[in-house]
Each structure stands twice: as C-alpha cells, then as structure tokens.
Amino acid sequence: MISNPFSKLLQSNQIRNSSYLYLDLSQIQICDHNSVQLVQALVAAKSLYDLNLKFSLNNKISLQGAQNIFTGLLNCQNLSKLSIDLKNQNIDDKIAPILGNGLTLIQNLQFLNIDLRHNKITDQGVADLTHRFSCFCKLTGLVIDLSYNLLTDKGAFNLGQSLKSMLNLQKLTLYLQANQIGDLGVKNISEIIEFCKNLKNLTIILDRNLITQEGIYFLAQSLTQSSNLSNFTIYLQENKLDSTCISDLSDGLAKCFNLSNLGVYLNFNDITNEGAICLARSILQIKNLKSLELHLMFNQIQKLGLSELGQCLRQLNYLIRLDFSINKISSYHTQTFKRNVKKMKRLTDCKIETD
C-alpha cells in the first residue's frame, strides 16, 4: 500500500481553516499518484487565500502530475495570491501550456509568482505558457522567472505580446537572465511599459544576454512613455554595453519624471568615463527621486569619470547604495572619492575597491 504523504495535513484543521498555506514539498517525491493526494489536500482548503507551493530538484513534474495539481488549484475558489516554485523541474514545451491554461483558470488571482528558472522552455513554450494571460482580469501583480531557459528574441516577442494585454498590471518583475535575448527581444519587452499604463513598479533582469545599443535605445524610448512608473530597477550586467549604450539609457531615464525609486545594475560591461558621466547627469534630472542604487563594478571608468560622477552624486541626498569596484582607478583616487560620498547622510552601502 502506498502511503499518503499528505495524510497528516488532511487530518488537521490547518488545511481547512487556513487563509495562508506554505507547502514545502522538497522532501516529498511527487509522482502522478501522490499529486492526486496533493489535489485532495488543496480541495479541502476552502478558506485558502494565499498559497505558496515549493517543489524541489527531486520533484520532476510530469504532464499528468501538472494536470492533477491544477485541478486541485481550481477548487481553491478564494485563492487570490499564488507563489509556485518549479525551478529545475525539466519543464519543457509539452508541460508549459498545461501550466499556462491551468493558471488562467484561477479566476480570482490578484498576485502570481511563478519560478521557472533552469528548465527547458523554448520560444514556443513561452507562447503557450502566457498566451491566455489576458484572462487574468483581476491580476495586478506578476513575478515570472524564466532565467536559464532557451529563449531568443522570438520568445521575448511572445512574452511581450502576452503581457501587453494585461492592462491592470501595477507591479511586474521579469527574470530573463542567461538566455539568448537580443535587441529585438528587448524592444518587445520594453513595449510592455507603453501598453500597461497602470504599471507603477517594474523590475527587468536581462543579465547575460545579447543586448547592444539598439536594444538599449528601444528600452530608453519606452521609458519616455512611462507616465505612472514610480519604481524601476533594471539589470543589464554582462552584456558588453559601452558608453554609447549608456548615453541612450540615460536619455530615457532623465524623462522618467515620476520615478521615486531607481536601481541600475551595469556591472561587467565596457562603460567608460563618458557613460558614467551621462548616467549621473541624467539621474540629477529626475526631480522626484527618493532612492537610488547604482552598480558599476568591473567597467572601464577612470579618474576623470570618477571625479565627475562624484560631483554629481554629492548633489543627491538619496543615494542608498553604490558599487564602483574594480574599475581603472588608482587606490588614491578611489579613497578620495569614497571619503566624499560617505558624507552623504542616507548612504547605507558603498563599495569602491581596486583590483
């Protein structure tokens, strides 16, 4: 007889009366059989409002298992917030549409966090996963992690097309690092900013892709249309961006007049003095800015860029974090700069180191 790993949960009042439930399944081998038992546990959760499901490396979700799990979720009529951790599950283009269709049938969802990193999802898989996301009539917050998959510009296009139809979105976080996304992909992702007018909080992680100046230009153009955006964080690390790229990005940021919180992560690129200066001057033009994180580690910035950057930053009273480590600057000039910026009242973290 096969034991039911969810029997204790089913017998307790916790599952029946809880509005919030965190299920860590990392110690349970999920197969087609006990995924049915998981469904039974979810069906019993009549009052469930907020659910966090965590799978593990040991759980390799099959087609049938995925169907079973979403059958259970459909019975959670009051479910408003769902976080589901499916990283490292060998999820491919066969399972992706089942996930997408199942998720969009949960009609009362207001917030969704789905972690699909380190899987085998291709461009077509992203299309199948997200093509019905417009059915999320009540969804205002979305976090989707597709990093370390098999996405190209076509996948970014498919994702962008789906997300542009989600007009009620107010908060969006996209993890897309370590794929093969280039400039056209960035263009389609950036257009989300233009279409989703209610978007107030946006984080885009595009580290370790294939982005050049053209992609940054598209991003900058979209930022100029971001009338309601108040919190923006962009990760563009390890893309070999030069100062021309950063000049374009700076032009876009300077026109984000309503930004109050900004994070810019540009580590491991080819930014020189000119790029650093352009970026600092554009930040000064964002009059409503209250918080700034600026990361420029491992670039090509020299003494002149450091000096000019320091003069701009000293005019700010809201710099929270600064990482300027390992640029082409002597230890003497680094220490001088560090002493000056550390006088800023709200600075909580400052890293300026030489190699």
TrEMBL record:
GO terms for biological process: nucleocytoplasmic transport. Coiled coil: none annotated. The keyword Repeat applies. Keywords: GTPase activation, Kinase, Leucine-rich repeat, Repeat, Transferase. Pfam families: LRR_6. GO terms for cellular component: cytosol; nucleus; perinuclear region of cytoplasm. InterPro entries: Leu-rich_rpt, LRR_dom_sf, RanGap. One of its GO terms (molecular function) is small GTPase binding. This is Kinase domain protein. It comes from Tetrahymena thermophila (strain SB210). The lineage of its organism: Eukaryota, Sar, Alveolata, Ciliophora, Intramacronucleata.
